[in-house]
């Protein structure tokens, strides 16, 4: 039968081979009572996500047969139903199970005699019905708790199943809301879209349909508008948008739902106006923000203002600072150029300081001088051994583990990720909305600032104690952060914070032309010798279709010349297509780590066939296991479930500093890494970078993308592709993200010019801000009739700067 055909199997659980306690994934052996497809055995292995299941339970599973490459045919259940005991004998047997401590068959019988076959429902509803059964208080309390837990979960899983939610998602939803799941979803099933990763609008919409929520229900339209914001925030990094674009995206999202007819534009616009009045959306001069984004901008601006105006102790004289800088330069044997000296003296005397420059302009060299001079001026030891009891007074951090490690290598001091500095796990979105603990260091230096997004930076600013010196270092022309905003560029553009722009290139090793090339491209120029081979870079002119083969040849030759898989990095901007990351990974894996008679163990995850020796990339921060987003490691061990005592697929990956075990539940934390996206390579450098550039990359062909990719190459750069695509990328400046942080900063620092000034709501004429929301038509919206200040009467930005601990998203 075709693998995708829907099938049903009912049977009794013979044994449970494996269960993952964290995500309810189970592998079960079922003794078949009934099966809807041809099957010539009495038993079948069923995999899927199940609630509480035990031996002898009868399950009806809906799913499809799959042919597992290692385990052969088995049944993948998308949903299931469990027969609950309805007979008296069945219920007594169920209640006497060992999960209900202290309840034996006798007691169970007494309970069922007294309360009938719907005893469970009665007890869960009102535990007092157990009075008179003769249970000791502790036994009774434990019994009620266990019953609520198992019964609650079972009920939730069954209901979600009935709504068509696949079992794996059902378990994630249950983990989020626990026993309150059905109540919460009954109130508003659309909350799933914001609360639970992986729930689409369409999925929530189909649950809403089962709950008889109508197509123009305000909860539905609000969800579509919020999802439209999320799409613009995440896909374009935008902080605000306008009504027209927002409503168009919301309409598109609604058209992907399961209900009809589509709401009219005025209906949708009225809900948006209501959201503005409720202040879940902030409207300002024609710009629309989700409230949390609006707040974050103001909090960053006000936080930086507080830090910038806090007095530094002790006060240092300029003469002393300059003298110390000279001494530090001597000690480090560096002749700092004038702009570097100016950067050092400002950094040492200002509470907040920005340092930017392209590759090889000496940013790290300035950081080294800064640390040495700071230590001298403040008489602090730089020996970590002196800080066994107290924290190190200088804190170095970067957005990725690789970048932090590089800071340590170049400065000799401990450095960590910003997440670790702030005690963030990176797993739970709500932690970005809680007050972070104060940081104790007196000098904090953050590198690779261009990668830091708005919410992470907001947490950093909130955590820094006034009186601390904060130095933010980066290359403003690199790709902006993956998350929303363009913080570093905005801080520089605001013009209100002391900053140094380093322009002189110091890394001019003989025969090295990559750094100079990067600088020229960054200016928007195509250097005439770009397509001619140099000692350290070359260009192979080929079409997109030839890219994989040519890259294969280059990798083969580089490998023969002694480059290890870790040295060679292929960077591409997209995942799909012949010249995309996915296909290039397949091609290069077959060259560098093919399947051989000695290397037969494989674990298949999606399109990847992982083998021992494969190069993989960590995709999420995992501070508990000391491995962070962007780190690259190699698989050192693989245990397929068949060979594992607990029937679990397992992999071990060795990173620079740690070895990490992965199970099926967290295989999505890693990806194959012979080729990676350019975004994922930010903050890392590699001896040999192979960079395909072809017109198939379309909209991705932008200058800052190319610039970022080229600056990842330490020693050798090999470009493969089409001249015209390279020229197009150089001529296309990266799109600006819509943000208002520069204006916020200017206003906080009192440097705002009248025409830039964000409108001050309190001075708006009362009749505008209090006017009832007019019914909106498409034409009116196109003319931007959504009153920019609707709902903003007597609201000031400061209203958004106070406690927001309990707000999310
Ligand atoms: N004033 C200087 N005199 C001589 N050499 C310098 C000077 N400043 C920096 N260098 C040298 O230039 C090279 C690049 O400097 P550095 O690594 O600090 O630049 P960077 O801006 O941090 O570069 P990247 O962003 O690529 O890491 C280093 O070898 C450094 O020693």
TrEMBL record:
Keyword DNA-binding carried by entry: yes
UniProt-recorded Gene Ontology molecular function terms: 5'-3' DNA helicase activity; ATP binding; ATP hydrolysis activity; DNA binding; exonuclease activity; single-stranded DNA helicase activity
AAA+ ATPase domain mapped to chain residues: 349-548
Enzymatic reactions: ATP + H2O = ADP + phosphate + H(+)
SMART domains: AAA (SM00382)
InterPro entries cross-referenced by the UniProt entry: AAA+_ATPase, Coronavir_polyprotein_1ab, P-loop_NTPase, RecD2, RecD2-like_HHH, RecD2_N_OB, RecD2_SH13, UvrD-like_helicase_C
EC number of this enzyme: 5.6.2.3
Cellular component, GO, one term: exodeoxyribonuclease V complex
CDD domains in UniProt: DEXSc_RecD-like, SF1_C_RecD
UniProt keyword terms in alphabetical order: ATP-binding, DNA-binding, Exonuclease, Helicase, Hydrolase, Isomerase, Nuclease, Nucleotide-binding
GO biological process: DNA recombination
Pfam families, A to Z: AAA_19, HHH_RecD2, OB_YrrC, SH3_13, UvrD_C_2
Record-listed ATP binding positions: 360-364
UniProt function note: DNA-dependent ATPase and ATP-dependent 5'-3' DNA helicase. Has no activity on blunt DNA or DNA with 3'-overhangs, requires at least 10 bases of 5'-ssDNA for helicase activity.
UniProt family annotation: Belongs to the RecD family. RecD2 subfamily.
HAMAP family: RecD2
Name of protein: ATP-dependent RecD2 DNA helicase
Organism: Schleiferilactobacillus perolens DSM 12744
């Amino acid at each position: 039968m075709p693998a995708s055909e829907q099938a049903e199997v009912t049977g009794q659980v013979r044994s449970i081979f494996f269960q993952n306690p964290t995500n309810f994934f189970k592998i079960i052996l079922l003794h078949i009572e009934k099966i809807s497809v041809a099957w010539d055995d009495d038993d079948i292995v069923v995999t899927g996500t199940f609630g509480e299941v035990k031996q002898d339970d009868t399950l009806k599973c809906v799913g499809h047969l799959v042919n597992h490459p290692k385990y052969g045919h088995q049944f993948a259940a998308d949903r299931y139903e469990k027969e609950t005991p309805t007979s008296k004998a069945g219920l007594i047997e169920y209640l006497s199970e060992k999960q209900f401590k202290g309840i034996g068959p006798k007691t169970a019988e007494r309970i069922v005699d007294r309360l009938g076959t719907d005893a469970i429902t009665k007890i869960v509803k009102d535990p007092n019905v157990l009075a008179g059964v003769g249970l000791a208080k502790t036994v009774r309390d434990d019994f009620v708790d266990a019953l609520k837990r198992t019964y609650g979960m079972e009920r939730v899983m069954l209901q979600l199943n009935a709504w068509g939610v696949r079992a794996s998602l059902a378990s994630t939803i249950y983990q989020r809301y626990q026993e309150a799941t059905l109540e919460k979803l009954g109130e508003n099933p659309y909350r799933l879209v914001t609360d639970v990763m992986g729930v689409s609008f369409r999925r929530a919409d189909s649950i809403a349909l089962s709950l008889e929520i109508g197509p123009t229900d305000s909860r539905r339209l609000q969800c579509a508008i919020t999802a439209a914001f999320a799409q613009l925030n995440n896909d374009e990094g935008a902080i605000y948008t306008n009504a027209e674009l927002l409503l168009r995206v919301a309409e598109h999202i609604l058209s992907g739902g399961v209900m009809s007819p589509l709401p009219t534009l005025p209906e949708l616009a009225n809900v948006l106006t209501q959201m503005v009045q409720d202040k879940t959306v902030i409207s300002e001069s024609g710009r629309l923000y989700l409230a949390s984004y609006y707040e974050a901008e103001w909090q960053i601006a006000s936080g930086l203002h507080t830090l910038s105006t806090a007095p530094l102790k002790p006060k240092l004289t300029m003469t002393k600072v300059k003298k110390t800088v000279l001494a530090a330069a001597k000690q480090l044997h560096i002749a700092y150029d004038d702009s570097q000296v100016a950067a050092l003296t400002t950094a040492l005397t200002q509470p907040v300081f920005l340092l930017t420059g392209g590759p090889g302009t000496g940013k790290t060299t300035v950081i080294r001088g800064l640390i040495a001079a700071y230590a001298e001026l403040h008489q602090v030891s730089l020996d970590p051994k002196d800080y066994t009891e107290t924290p190190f007074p200088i804190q170095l951090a970067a957005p990725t583990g690789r970048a932090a490690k590089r800071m340590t290598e170049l400065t000799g001091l401990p450095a960590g990720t910003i997440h670790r500095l702030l005690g963030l796990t990176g797993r739970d979105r709500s932690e970005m909305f809680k007050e972070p603990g104060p940081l104790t260091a007196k000098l904090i230096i953050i590198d690779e600032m261009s990668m830091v997004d708005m919410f992470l930076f907001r947490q950093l600013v909130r955590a820094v104690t006034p009186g601390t010196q904060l130095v933010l270092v980066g290359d403003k022309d690199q790709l902006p952060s993956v998350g929303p905003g363009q913080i570093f560029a905005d801080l520089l553009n605001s013009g209100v914070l002391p900053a140094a722009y380093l322009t002189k290139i110091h890394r001019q090793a003989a025969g090295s032309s990559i750094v100079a090339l990067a600088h020229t491209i960054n200016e928007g120029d195509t250097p005439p010798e770009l397509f001619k081979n140099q000692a350290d870079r070359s260009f192979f002119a080929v079409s997109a279709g030839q890219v994989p083969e040519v890259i294969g040849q280059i990798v083969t030759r580089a490998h023969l010349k002694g480059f290890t898989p870790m040295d060679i990095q292929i960077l591409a901007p997209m995942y799909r297509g012949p010249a995309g990351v996915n296909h290039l990974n397949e091609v290069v894996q077959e060259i560098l780590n093919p399947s051989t008679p000695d290397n037969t163990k494989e674990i298949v995850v999606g399109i990847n066939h992982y083998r021992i020796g494969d190069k993989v990339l960590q995709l999420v921060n995992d501070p508990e296991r000391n491995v962070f987003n962007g780190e690259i490691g190699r698989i050192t061990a693989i245990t397929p479930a068949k060979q594992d005592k607990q029937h679990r697929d397992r992999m071990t990956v060795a990173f620079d500093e740690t070895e990490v075990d992965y199970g099926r539940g967290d295989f999505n934390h890693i990806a194959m890494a012979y080729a990676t996206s350019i975004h994922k390579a930010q903050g890392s450098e590699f001896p040999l970078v192979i960079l395909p550039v072809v017109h198939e990359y379309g909209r991705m062909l932008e200058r800052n993308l190319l610039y970022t990719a080229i600056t990842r190459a330490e020693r050798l750069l090999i470009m493969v592709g089409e001249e015209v695509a390279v020229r197009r990328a150089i001529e296309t400046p990266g799109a600006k993200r819509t943000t208002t942080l520069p204006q916020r900063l200017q206003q906080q620092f009192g440097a705002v010019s009248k025409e830039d000034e964000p409108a001050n709501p309190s001075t708006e004429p009362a009749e505008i801000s209090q006017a009832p929301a007019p019914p909106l038509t498409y034409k009116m919206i196109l003319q931007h009739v959504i009153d920019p200040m609707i709902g903003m009467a007597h609201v000031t930005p400061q209203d958004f700067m106070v406690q927001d601990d309990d707000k999310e998203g």
